[in-house]
Structure formats: C-alpha cells, structure tokens
Design brief:
Layout: H1 3-19, H2 35-49, E1 53-58, E2 68-72, E3 76-78, E4 81-84, E5 91-101, H3 114-120, E6 121-131, H4 143-148, E7 153-162, H5 164-168, E8 175-179, E9 182-186, H6 197-208, E10 218-220, E11 228-230, E12 235-240, E13 245-252
Parallel strand pairs: 1-10, 3-7, 4-13
Antiparallel strand pairs: 1-2, 5-6, 5-10, 5-11, 6-7, 8-9, 8-12, 12-13
C-alpha cells in the first residue's frame, strides 16, 4: 500500500472510533493486503487520534496472523465503573489478566530475559477488555482489516491486583458472571496456555521495532472466556476462580 491509501484507511477507522459509528469494510483501494499494511494503518490511526498508547493487547503469532493492537490511554479505566459503547443493548467484554509495568523496558541492543521482564512487572490485575468493532456487525471483516482496526479493542478496565505467581499459574481459570438474575459459570482457559508467553513475545517484537515498554503501560494476553455480554448501567460481578472478583458497572458512552 502507498502512504495515501494507508492514510485514507486510517481516517476512516479513526473517525468511526471517535464517533462510535461502525461502517462497511474498507474500500478495496484502502484495504490492507499484508500484515505490514495492517500495522501501518494501526500506526496511522494512532497518529490521527493523538492518544497516548496506555497498553497493548497481544497473543501468540502465527505465520499468517499477528495478534497485536494498541490500547489507548484515555480508554483505560479503574474503579467500579467504566464507559463503553452499547451495541444491540449490551456491552461486550473479555475477562483477562493485565500485566502492568511501572518502570517500563526501554529499547536496547540485547534481548530482555524472562527474568528481567518479570522483574519489571509491577502488578497484575483482573481486567476486562472492552470490545467494539469499527465495522458493521453484519459483515465479519477479513483478518487484515480487523488487525488494522485494532482487533476490536475499545478499551480496558483494570480491577483488583492479584499475586504474580498465581497469575502465572493461571493456564485455566473458571469465570463466574453474576448480574441481576444471571449467574453463569464459564470454563475459562487461556488461549496460549501460558498467560505470560504472549507478553514475552510482545517485548521482543517491540524491541525489534526499536520500541520499548513504556512506564505505566498494561498488557493483556488473551481472554479466558471469549466475549461476555453485560447489561449496561447494572453492576456485574466477575469471579476469576481463586484469584478474586472484579465488580463493575459499564456506563454507556
């Protein structure tokens, strides 16, 4: 893709993100054809929004797919409420663990070891990724367009901190969802098997791009139960096995 096509795609996606109004797939002339195209559009969207990157969502890559998207600082919330776009009367979230870096990991010539990365993790939190697409629900976008759009991320809500050792051992984690009369127990499994593995990959990937982990950034590495639908404006309690509970009310944007 040339720079003009990348910019036009980014304008479309950034405008939809700001307005909360999804639309059709990108026109063929502005659609990414490679992983590099999709990531270039991601970066162009970030430049247009002028919103600091407060974290990342990531997963283990394959030859055909790269699971990587920025989480914008203004969309990260704490406490007992969060703001989210409501679609078809519900808010969509994914239960995750978030690794937070207080000091960051600046770019350097040599790779960071697992021990160095773990030492830089200041806390781990129960978390909810807020889910929303900039594409109409009727048409599932091709993966590269979804990647360019940030892999349906609209934000992140951070809940209570949990012990690092317990988080690292959480390859599976039953998720209990309670809201109103609903009381559902979901058999949660981390998609990578190891909640730390995608984070280790991310640090190496950013380093290869001449980037680092910035102080205060949070990283989520995969949902334990896929997408969970919550009713807006009502308190929900999500239990993460023996790690604890996250209580939140998602308020409409």
């Amino acid at each position: 893709m040339d720079s003009n096509a990348i910019q036009q795609a980014a304008i479309t996606l950034a405008s939809r993100r700001l307005a909360g109004q999804p639309g059709p797939l990108l026109a063929a002339a502005h659609a990414p054809a490679t992983l590099q195209d999709a990531l270039a559009i991601q970066q162009a969207v970030s430049n247009l929004l002028g919103n600091g990157i407060g974290g990342w969502k990531c997963g283990m890559p394959s030859d055909e797919r790269l699971v990587l998207a920025p989480i914008y600082a203004s969309t990260i919330s704490h406490g007992d409420t969060c703001q989210a776009w409501v679609r078809d009367g519900v808010v969509r979230v994914e239960p995750e663990l978030a690794f937070v870096f207080a000091e960051g990991l600046p770019p350097r010539a040599t790779a960071y070891s697992r021990e160095e990365i773990l030492a830089a993790v200041s806390s781990v939190h129960l978390a909810l990724e807020l889910i929303d697409s900039r594409f109409d629900a009727e048409t599932k976008p091709p993966f590269l367009q979804a990647l360019a759009d940030g892999l349906v991320n609209q934000g992140l809500h951070l809940g209570p901190a949990v012990p690092l050792a317990a988080a690292l051992a959480a390859s599976s984690l039953p998720v209990r969802v309670q809201q109103g009369e609903r009381d559902a127990l979901l058999a949660g499994v981390h998609p990578a098997g190891d909640p730390l593995a995608p984070l280790l990959w991310l640090v190496g990937h950013l380093q290869q791009q001449g980037q680092g982990m910035l102080p205060g950034q949070a990283v989520i590495t995969g949902s334990y139960a896929g997408v969970v639908q919550l009713q807006p404006g009502q308190q929900a309690t999500l239990g993460f096995g023996e790690l604890g509970q996250l209580m939140v009310s998602c308020q409409p944007r």
